[in-house]
Amino acid sequence: MLRLPRFEVATPKTVGEAIARLAEAGPSAMVIAGGTDLLPNLKHELFTPELVVSLSAIEALRGVRVEDDGTLAIGAMTTLAEVAASELVQKHAPVLAQAASLVAGPQLRTMGTLGGNVLLDTRCQWYNQTYFWREALGFCMKKDGTKCHVVEGGKKCVAAASNDSAPALMTLGSLLEFEGPSGRRTQAIDDFWLADGIYNKKVAHAELLTEIRIPPTGPGHRGAYGKLRERGSIDFPLLGVAARVDVVAERITRADVVVTALAAQPKRIARVADVLVGVAARGEELDRAIEAVAASAAKQCNPLANIPGDHEWRKAMVPVFVRRTLRAAVDGNGPVHGD
Length: 339
Fold this sequence. Notes:
Elements (H helix, E strand, L loop, with lengths): L7 E3 L4 H11 L3 E4 L5 H6 L7 E4 L9 E3 L5 E4 L4 H6 L1 H6 L1 H8 L4 H6 L2 H5 L12 H6 L28 H7 L3 E6 L2 E6 L19 E7 L6 E8 L10 E10 L2 E10 L6 E2 L3 H5 L7 H17 L10 H21 L4 E3 L1
Parallel strand pairs: 1-3, 2-3, 9-13
Antiparallel strand pairs: 4-5, 5-8, 6-7, 6-8, 9-10, 10-11, 11-12
Helix pairs in contact: 11-12
């Protein structure tokens, strides 16, 4: 049986109290939101904090609202189940509602939060294991060792970003609101990621993600999320694809595709708008354009053996899921999932 290490738990009632506890404790403190990822990681001794600061009692971090200018604002502690079921999210950001609906399973979505998913630690099949298992291999550079088991002689960790919400939020041009000891700041999610599997986010200790803000999408906005996984639920993505298209007068006026679970940060597929913008939203012209984007994505994406699932098969699935997800977005359908 895997047991949790000993640690103190703090349950502050306000964001300010939480920041103060984290700042006072320093690196020995960690934040817990829903705990669906952190608790297994604690049992695996990937983290051994002395203090865990729970955000569960901070009501100000929950809820979904649309502001006067059309901005969709979602509190970081809003559960994934609430995000998936929200009529506001479904209307203004369908790709996010779909992505949230495919995270793990129903019980975990009831506990897991949108903020927690955005800040999900990178994952690797050589890292997300028990201490005994990792010790037998001499550990890895992400935790306790110096060797990369994925890339022979590799100098940089390639653990994969595996958060389903990230590519969806990127297609929406989302902003992340943080609050910390130095005050509040706004971070564009496109600029939030680092190409480092050890720590792939630009966020400081004692900074809390408080809100996710999605700019107005407007009429004609459509989106879809596609998720490749071995089982129909529970699993992290072997590949995640978020697609956005805006359609006005039956022509595509905006298009974007972002993929995840391939490398340490989500990846935007280049030149999608160049191919799709101006194309009719139905017919052979659209078919050709979607095929061109799918073929381009296959060339741009090179999965590694960093997560379970044969990486060659995952690469073969890139054009398949890009094609399916783009089609679902244009048709106003989704989500797309399967193996």
